Amino acid sequence: MSDFFLTAVLTLDASVRVCVPLIFAAMAGLFAERSGVVDIGLEGKLLMSAFVAASAASVFGSPWLGLIAGMFASSVLAMIHGFASITYKGNQIVSGVAINILASGLTMILTLAWFKRGGITPTLQGDERFLSITLPGVDFIDHIPFLGVIYRELISGHNILVYLAFAIVPVVWWIVFRTRFGLQLRAVGENPKAVDTAGLSVEGLRYKALLIGGILCGIGGAYLSTAYNAQFTKEMTAGGGFIALAALIFGKWHPYRVLAACFLFAFLQALAIRLQGVIIPGIGEIPVQLIDATPYILTIILLAGFIGKAVPPKASAQPYIKEL
Amino acid sequence: MTRDKRLSWINGLLLPLFNVLTAFIATGIVFLFIGVDPIEATKILLYGALGYDEGLGYTLYYATNFVFTGLAVAVAFHAGLFNIGGEGQAYVGGLGIALVALYINPAMSAWIVIPLAISGGLLFGALWAIIPAYLQAYRGSHIVITTIMFNFLASALMVYVLVNILREVGEMSPESGDFIKVSWLPFVHDIFASFGYKIARSPLNLSILVALFFSAAVWFFLWHTRWGFAIRAAGKSNEAAIYSGINPKKIIVVTMCISGALAGLVGINELMGVQHRLFLNFNYGYGFGGIAVALMGRNHPIGILIAAFLFGILYQGGAELDFELQNVSRDIVVVMQGLVILFCGGLEYLYRPVLIRFLAPIKESK
After folding, report:
1. Which A-chain residues 278-307 have CB contacts (< 8 A) with chain B?
2. What CATH number is given to the structural domain containing A239?
3. 3-state SS, one letter per residue, for chain A
4. pTM for the full model?
5. Domain annotation covers residue B201
C-alpha cells in the first residue's frame, strides 16, 4: 500500500512539473482571448522564449538574465501578433500560425548560427539554471506518515518558477475579475464597441493583454529550458502551447478552472509515462497514445457541447473596426 | 482608369506582390543577421533547385506535395473556413493509401490498384476532416481549434497503428512492410528512360500529373459548377447564401471533405511514388506549408501552382544551402514559410493605406 502511495505521490509530483509551462501559456492565452484576440501562437512564443532563455542563461551564466531575455523574446512575438491582428486587422489565426512556424524555424537557424549546433544550446551547468528549493521543515515533517512524503516529494523541492506558476493563478483571477483593468479587458472581448463608446482605447487594451500574455509565455518557455531541463532542444515544447490552448477552452476561460484543466492534462501526461508497458489486470495494456490523445479528445467533446458548453468571448477573432 | 479599377489592381496584383517581396527581404535580413551574404545564398539556392536535372527533379517532387496541401487549404478558404488540419489529414490519408497498397491482391493490374490506392488517400483524408466539419456545422465548435486537435489525434493514431498493427514482426522501426509492386507510381526518370531519353535520377514521379489534374479539377469545380458557386457564395456571405437557398451547414461538411481529401493525396507522392512503405511523420511540415502556399497563391489553382513551385525551389535549394554553407540549415525554409504566412496572410493589408493614398486617392467631393 505504501508503495502505491509513494508512486501516486511521485506521479502527482511529475504532473506538477509538467503543468508549469501549461499554466503560464494558458494564463497568457486567457488574457489574449478575454480581450478578443485569439492566440494560437502560444506554442511559438513558448518555444522562442525557451530558446532565448537557454541561450542567454548560457552566455551570461545567470538563469535570471535568461528569464528576462525569454520574456522579452516572447513579448516581441506577441507584439508582432498584435501589430498584424490589432493594428492591421489581419486574420488572427493566420498571424498566430505565422508566429508558430517562425519560432520553429528561427530557433533552429539560430542554434546553428550562434552555437554551431543544430537544434540545441549548450548544457547549463550548476547555478546557470533554476535549482530546486528545499522548503523549511522537511526533516521535521518527514517523521509524520503520509504527510511527510507529500510534503517532501510533492510540495518541497521545486524551483522558484513552479511556485510562481501556482501563485500567479489567483493573481490572474484577481486582475481579471476584481480590478478596473480586468473589467475593461472582459468588456473589450465581449463588446468592443461599448468600450470604445466609453472613451477607452480598444486597441490599447488589446495590446496590453497581448503584452501580458507575451511576458507570461516567456516565463513558461524559460521554465522549460532553464529549470525543467538544462538546455534548449529542438521543438522542446512538443505541443505544450496547444495543450494549454485546449486547457484554456476546457477551463472555459476562467483562471481556476483553467488551472484545473492544466493539471488534469499534465497528470495524463505523467500517467502516460508511468503506464508505459504496464499491464492492468482485467484491462490489459492501455496504449500510451490513447492517454496522450485524451486531452484533445476531452476538449473536442467539450467543444461539441456534450459535456457542458464552452462559449468563447463574443468578440473573439474579430478585429475591431471603428465606425466613422 | 476608374477608381474601382485601380482598387482592384491594387488588391489583386500590387498588394500580393509587395507582400511576397517583403517576405523575401525579411528573409534576407535573417541571412544578414546570421552572417550569410543573402545574394550568395540566393545564388546557391537557385542553382541547387534549378541549375541541373537532379535538382529540378527534387524541386518538382517537393512542389507536388505543396500543390496538394495548398489546394486543400484554398478550397476551405473559399467557403470561409480555415482548415489548419492539413497536416493530420495528409497523415491519415497516407494510412488509407497504405491499406490498399499493402493488402490488395498483388495479381491485380496497376490500372486498378493505383486508382484504388489514390481513392484510399482521398477517402481517409476526407474522413479525418468530416468530424471537425460536422462539429463546426451542427454543434458550433470552431473548426480551427478542432482541426488543431485532430492533428494531434492523427499523430497519436498513426504512432499506434504503425507500432502495434502495421509494423512487421521482428522489425524495430515503426514502419510498414513494402507496398505491393503494382501500386508503385513510376519515376519520371524511368519513364523517360523507356523512351530512350536519359535524365538524372530523382524522386520525381507521376504524382505530379495527379497534382496537375487536381489543380484543374479544383479550378473547374470552384468556378464552373453549381457546388463550387455555392461554396464561394457561402464563403462571401452566409446570409446571402441562405437567402438564395444554399444550406451553409451542408456546404461546410462538403467543403471540408474535399479539402481533407486533397490533403490526403500527399501520401501518393511520398509513399506510392518514393518510399513504397508507410512510416512516421512522412507528412511533416507539408500541411502547414500548404497554408503559406494557399495564401501566396491567392487561393487560385494557378497561383497555387506557382507558389508550390516556389516552395519546391526553397525546399530543394534549402537542402543545397545546408550542404554548401556552414552557418545555415534547411530550416531557413521554415523561417521563410513563417514570413510568407505573416506578410501575405496576417499583414495582408500592410501597404494598402499607402498604396491607396498614392494610386487611388478619394477625390474631394464638392
Report:
1. 287, 289-290, 292-293, 296-297, 299-300, 303-305
2. 1.10.3470
3. CHHHHHHHHHHHHHHHHHHHHHHHHHHHHHHHHHCCCCCCCHHHHHHHHHHHHHHHHHHHCCHHHHHHHHHHHHHHHHHHHHHHHHHCCCCHHHHHHHHHHHHHHHHHHHHHHHHCCCCECCCCCHHHCCCEECCCCHHHHCCCCCHHHHHHHHHCCEEHHHHHHHHHHHHHHHHHHHCHHHHHHHHHHHCHHHHHHCCCCHHHHHHHHHHHHHHHHHHHHHHHHHHHCCCCECCCCCCHHHHHHHHHHHCCCCHHHHHHHHHHHHHHHHHHHHCCCCEECCCEECCHHHHHHHHHHHHHHHHCCCCCCCCCCCCCCCCCCCCC
4. 0.90
5. yes
